[in-house]
Structure formats: C-alpha cells, structure tokens
Amino acid sequence: MGNFSSIPWQSGGFYKGAPSVIFSAEEECKLAGNFQFTVVGRGSKHISIREAEDCLIKGGYKEFKLQLLSPKEIIFIFKHEEDYLRWFHRRRWTIKGNLINLTKWTPEHSSSKDCPIIPLWVEVSKLPLHLHDHNVLYSIASSLGKPLELDSNSVIGVFPDRTRFCVEMDVSISKAPKIHVRLGAKDLWLPCSYENHTPYCSSCSRFGHAPKDCRIKGPENLTVAAPSKVVEDSPFPDLSYLKVDNFIGCMDIVPFVPLSHNHFDDEKPLVTLPGRKDDCWIHPNMVCGLEGHEKDAQEGAETPIYCHSEGEEGAKPFINEPKGSLFTLSGVRSQGRTWHKLDRVLLNLDTMASFEDLALTHLPRANSDHKPLLLFCLDTPPYGAKPFKFLNAWTQHDSFLATIQASWSSTPTIGGMRGLVLKLKTLKLALKDWNSSHFGNIFLKLKEAEEIASKAQETYELDPSDLNCEGAQLANAQLVQAVNREVSYWKQKENVKWLEKGDTNSKVFQAFVRGKRQRLNINHIISSEGRGLSFQDYIKQEYISHFQKAFKSTPCGNMEPILSTIHAVITQEDNAFLTSIPCMEEEFFLGLPITKGYGSTFISLIPKKENPKTFDDFRPISLSTFMSKINTKLLANRLKTLLPKIISEEQAAFQKGKSCDDHILLAKEAIHHLDKKTFGGNVIIKVDMAKAFDRMEWSYIEHILKGFGFSDGAINILMANLKNTFLSILLNGAPTGFFKMERGVKQGDPLSPLLFIIGGEGLCRMINKHMSSHFINRFNVGSIQMVSQLIYADDLIIFSKGDIRNLLKIKAILREYFTASGQDMNNNKSRFYTS
C-alpha cells in the first residue's frame, strides 16, 4: 500500500467552486516523459491482453507493459526505442483475427480522436555530396519532425544525390514539398517525397478517410442538371414557394424548368442543391486499388474469414482468386527487385448481393509499377438453365402436401418404371407452377412479412385493443415463419450442419455461400491441346469432348491370364438370393430394360486440388436419381454378404470390418525390412491407377463376374444400371451435353464401388498366383512370408525382390491387366522405393 505522507502537498485551493491541484508545464512534460515510447491500439473487437502479450513475445520484443484503457483500447508501453519503432512502424496488426490500429500516445489522448503524429519515411533528393553527414542529415530531418532513423543505404552512402530517413511528423498539417537549406550566401531547395499512409481527417480527428469524405463535415452544395420535360410544358403547379429547413438525402425539392421544344439531348440548365453525407441510405460500394497491407502471396494474400461450417481453416475471401499474374506490384527498391500483392478490391455485402458473379483480373502493367485491376460484375449468370432442385423450405408451406397429392392422383399408375418416371415428371412441373403462384420468392416474402409485422406493431402501439393485439401477434408469427423458410434455404445451400456449429443466418454467411459457389465455377480451362479457354461456349465443347472420350469404350485385350486365376465360388443359392424379387414385384429385378429417365444422371465435378487447370484435375461424381439408388442400394446390400467369398485379404476398400489401418501397419513393417540383405534387394512399388473408376471396361467386369459363378440373370441385374446410364455434365450448375456411358463405374452410386473391387480382384489373384508359383520372387523379410500386395480402391502396393528379371515380370503382368481391363497407370503419382 502506497504512503502519501512523504509527498509534498500541492493544493491550488479552489477553482470555480471545485478543489484545484496545479502542475506546471515542466512537471507535466516530466511525467509524460515516462511514456515517450507508448502506443495506443484500437481493436475491431474486445482485446485480450494475454493474446497481445503472446504476440509481442513471439515477435521478439523485450521489455514492455500492456494496459487496457477500455475493452477495445489498449496501450503498449515499451522500454526500448527500437521496440517502440518496430511496433509502431507497421501501424496495423492483426492479433487472433482482431485488427488493431496503432496511434501515438500523447498527454492530450482521447478515445474519440486519433493522434496525427506517425512515423513517416521521407526521401530528400538533389542533396549535395558534402551534406552526407549524420549531423547534417539530422538537422535536415528535424525541420520536418522528430528524427527517428536513417535508411541503411543512406548510412553507407549508396545513393550520393539523395537520402531517406524516418521522422515523427504531424500528418494533419500539409506536407512541405521541399526543404530550404541556407549554405552561406546560397539558397538550396531540396525536393521531398513522402511514403503513402492512411489518410487523416482533421474534421473528425480520425484515420481512415480524407476530409472530403468525412460524414461529420457539413453539407456541401452540389451542381446537377435540373429535371426537365420534353416536348410539352409541365401540367403541374409551381411548387417553388415550398421551403424545408432540414434537407434529407433523395428528398430535396428542386425547381422545375419546363422545356417546350427540346427534342434532343441538348445542354440542360444546372441547379444547385444541398448535399449531405447521411447514414439514411445503404448503397452498394466498392473501393479499388487499396495499397498498404503488404503481404506476400506465398503467405496468403488475404485475411481469412472464419466460418464455423468450414472447420478451423477459415474461408477464403468471397471473390475467386484473381486471374492473371500472382503479384500486382513489381519494381526495384532499395533492397533490390521486389514483387508484392498490394492492390485490392473491397466490396461491401450489398454490392456482392447485387451481382450473381464477380471476377477479378490482374491486367499487364504499362507505365506504372502497379498492375490495373479489372472487376467483372455479372448481373445474370451466362451459364444456361438450371436443373430442377427440391427445396426443403417447401415442406413448411400449408398447401405443399395438397399439391403433391393432387399431382400424384391426376397421373395414372401404369407402365412400371416408365409410369413412375412420367408421374415424377408431372410432379416436377406441378411444383414449379406452385412455387411461382403460391410459395413465391423467399426473400421478397421475408421483406413483405417484415413490413407487415412492423406496421401491425405500430398500429397496436397507437391503439392497444384486443383486435390490434391479435393482428400484431399474427403478423409476428408470419414473420417467424418467413425467417424459418430463409434459414432452411441457406442451410440447404451450404449443405452442412451450420447452425449447430455457430454460424448465423447473416449477410456475411450468405455472401460466404455465394462466394463458395462462385469459386467452384469453371471460368477458365486448359484444353487437351494446351490452349487456354475462357469463353463458355468453348469450355462447353471441351467439356463434352473430354468426358465423352473418358467414358468411351475401347477394345479389351486377352483376358485369359486373368480369368485362369478366377474360380467359381458363387452357388445357385447365392444367385437366387441376389436376383430374388422384393416383397412387391418390381420390373428392375425382372431384367427389363431401364428407361432413359430412370438411368439418366448428372455428373458434378469436384476439384482434386486448389486452382484446377484442366478437366483431369476434377473428380466426376454421379448425382444418381433416387429411383436408381433404391435398386442399387438393395443390390449392394445383397452383394456385400457375398464379398467374403470373392475378395482376397489384400483388398480392404468398401468392405465391412476392413479398413486401411492394417495396410498401414504392414507397409511400415515392410519399410523396416527394406534394406535387408538379399540378392537384388527388396523393392516396394506403389502403383496409382489413372482415372480408375472411369476407365474400367464393362466387358471385363462381366467376364470376372462370370468366372466367379454369377448367373447370366445376376450379371444382367448388376450391370443394368451402368449399361442404361446417360450422362449430362453440370458446368457451373447448368446441364451440358447428353451422351451414353460406355465404360467405367459411377462414383457416388452405392453399387459401383463393389463392382470396381470385384474387377480389381483379377489383378490381385494374378499377382498372388505368380508369387505362389515363385514366378515372381517375394519380398524378403526373413522366415516370415510377406504379403505380395496391398490394394485399397485404385491404390496398389506391390512387395517383391528388386532384381531386373523380377521387375520385368511385374511389368508384364501389369501390362496384361491394363490391356484386359482398360486401366492405365498414372506415372506422375506412381513410385518405387528401395534401400
């Protein structure tokens, strides 16, 4: 506890009726000297002292002290000037997602104002050689403010005709374009150039905007064209006698100027009306070419926006990665050639909601060291019609079930699968009409509900009767219902459990969903010939050509070496179980042909990596109809019970009770024995199949099924869904092309993965046969026999001896399998490992 008894008493009596204490200016200056290396930080949200302290410690700052002035305001007190300068130079820091702006502390500190004194780099040119003295340069810098430090190049005199130094100066005062130096009887003028900094407004004493953009500053007169009528005089009376004291934006009364014979866009009279910076209106806004947050692209050019639905990584900015070169600035600086990504385009949420698509391009630079930024704002997406999608919000409408029942009962139940397709097609058209006539636009309905609820509440407050109370409660209930429909819409759009993870139905979240959809759009692709395509028509042509070729069947080679290793293990009882008709007779299990509407499917492309360049960088996923999935799911559940008879232990994918964990342990064990002494050494071969699911030939799968003992009826049912598949590729959400699938299995279909591993069993058994017959020498781990291979879906690892004869035999076996099945090896991802 401090004791005041030893401190001299400095009472000043009373001043205007209040007790007074007097300190001299020298005493105040002495007290403020203890805080000469103090910086004030203002955050965008509540500041944590612990997080700020951890940030400073990680940055290597030595002795400092932190104190909170308010939840969003903190002071940094440094003991050493170099720490103070290093922290203050940057002016803005982001600590755990909290943007903190720094200003200098002064005795006149106020939470509502920013101190205009900042460290600023100044370059002085046309400097005589003999003035390159530290004391002289200190005097020159003192004419602008408090000198802080010299540039390293100026210290060693790299550029004799100029110098660069940092000074603390008041940016609220206009900067001097030159400095006067008196050399004896001569006058010398030294031009000055200043680094760019955040603009300072002297009207509100804040950084962030120029005085001309200040909202606190009084209204200015704006000159605009007077409204006029063409051809005829105004039929309205003169309203110039009306006066208003308080002008509101967009509500000004302007004198009418009639023009009786103006048939062309001639020059019109100008009038002056009061301008006003007002918060009454929120307009879409964008700011282009911002420079300041210097951050190399390798470190991530943008600050991530965290969205709980996306996990801990945080979301990318709402606009796609810009096209063109990576950096926006390049030039020679004192440190040499530099490249940076400094320029930005900032959009508020209203602007983003006004356009369907936004794209940014970095154009080539000309005279400036900065590159121009070109922003494309598309009001309507040029991608074509969208496929029908069921909205979960429809189920919350009162007339939804009645619409379903009316459409379903109006269509006759005939024709089996063909009749079901017809009923669903009729229902789709009925739902589209009902959505337009009854359900309506979710967002417009929400705005209408908000207005009605607001008016009903006002009416009740003016006249609190029972009738008005009931009306207000009803309007509020309708508003809650409209909000729930919007929440259901965005929840379905994002397709994750977002509300449970902390996200709210805000404009930020909605903009994030739009941005995510835009990032998945394909606006540029490299064709198979190596040409870059940007026009949608060219992309569509390449799109269709690529996937028609990918799913086009090719002649199969000799299957006898593979089929000789396949033995019949499926009994007549297994075939009867697989082909048995469910409780109600269904055409599918009778083996009848499947209609186009039943087997047609959309293909959605999922990027395999960031910034895909070609269509090979996408994974095609089948969006099969629920009708086909019902049958394939039933078949998959039946086929799973037969897999233990068919699939070898070396395969672990898509089987209940198996995982890749055992494979990982076996692979690690093999690596430990990789350098074991043996003739030719040991080798591990990792084979990656190129487009494995898309390339497997149907005739090969049928021969493998036949070899295992499946009956013709069972094979027909298992392959029916594949053989009657017609594909339409979704390009930016719009269907493109319509062609028949001729090979491959559908990723996203319940049955297809099982057919794929059955097809892969041919290679597995062929390798096991040659290992058992010692045609291929095994991997040597001592007295224990090592597994010959490990297979997980399209990934294959082979363990064998590494002599040249052994490797040539393995190569021949793989070639036989590739020729028979249509598969191929991805050389870029395949590897081999030796000791």
UniProtKB/TrEMBL annotation:
Pfam families: RVT_1. Residues 587-835 form the Reverse transcriptase domain. It comes from the Eukaryota. This is Reverse transcriptase domain-containing protein. It comes from Cuscuta campestris.
